[in-house]
Amino acid sequence: MSTVMHALNGLCQAIPSRTGGLSAYVKGQGKPLLLIHTVNASASAAEVRTLFDRMSLHRTVYAIDLPGFGASERSDRMYNPRLMTDAVLDLVLHIRIQHGPAAIDALAVSLSCEFLARAAVEHPGYFSTLSLVSPTGFSGRKLRQGAPGATYGQDWLWRVLKGPGWGKALFRALTRPGVIRYFLNKTWGSTAIDEDMFTFAVWTTRQANAEHAPLCFLSAQMFSADITTIYDQLNMPVWMSHGTRGDFVDYQGKLRYSKNSHWRFTVFASGALPYFEFPEEFCQALQEFIAHP
User: Fold this and answer.
1) Following DSSP, what letter does each residue of 98-109 receive, concatenated?
2) What is the pTM for the complete model shown?
3) The CATH number of the domain where 198 resides is what?
4) Residue 136 maps to a domain
5) How many domains does the chain have?
6) Residue ranges making up the domain that contains 62
7) Strand 22-27 relative to strand 60-65: parallel, antiparallel, unpaired?
8) pLDDT in tens, 17-42
């Protein structure tokens, strides 16, 4: 029997959800703070560990395992922005039951910023502030203003990947330890990656049905074609941060929001996950933002 690993040092709760088996970690006391990890072949709540541990000294922190990842349901189904956004909203409803109806602060990383932004546009009263770390949808100057709810999903590619043996074999190739380390190096922009995060990434990709959500990701099913329109509609305070190293450094699109009084920006001399490299500075900036948005 394989050893069960946990992404975070907190209580792992089952969350009532229309998306099926949804899990989230919780730790701390005080006003709630929601953390949402990014999406990749080995994603999980482990990607927000330093934030979870540090911010739980000041807040009740909830860190979701998105559908298809970590301790949440990994069944064979379509994983798209609608499913992910519904999972975020269901966790927010759970938080509101536990803490009352006051708007909450929420932080998402990379592609999950699109899910959080969509949730905030659909239910703006649920969110007090949004913190977007290395968000997608800002590279270059091209605007993503497709039909509402449209994605860049390639259905033919998804069907091919789901074909007998192909997808699982590809997933196994992409999640060999050396390949996971390679992509983490690109995320960090250096070889000084977080080794605990690497260890959990390898473990979680070995669990049953771990390939289904990543195959949807590979066929672009999770990328919103209307995300510029969604970002345009955000009317609560937004803090966008990113790094200067690695594969995720093109954020020309943020100029569109540079004159918006409710948007603010911070650039760290880091890779795409600055809170791992500058945990004290990042958490101080986050605390200041959510305290005085």
Assistant:
1) HH-SS-EEEEEE
2) 0.97
3) 3.40.50.1820
4) yes
5) 1
6) 11-291
7) antiparallel
8) 999 999 999 999 999 999 999 999 99
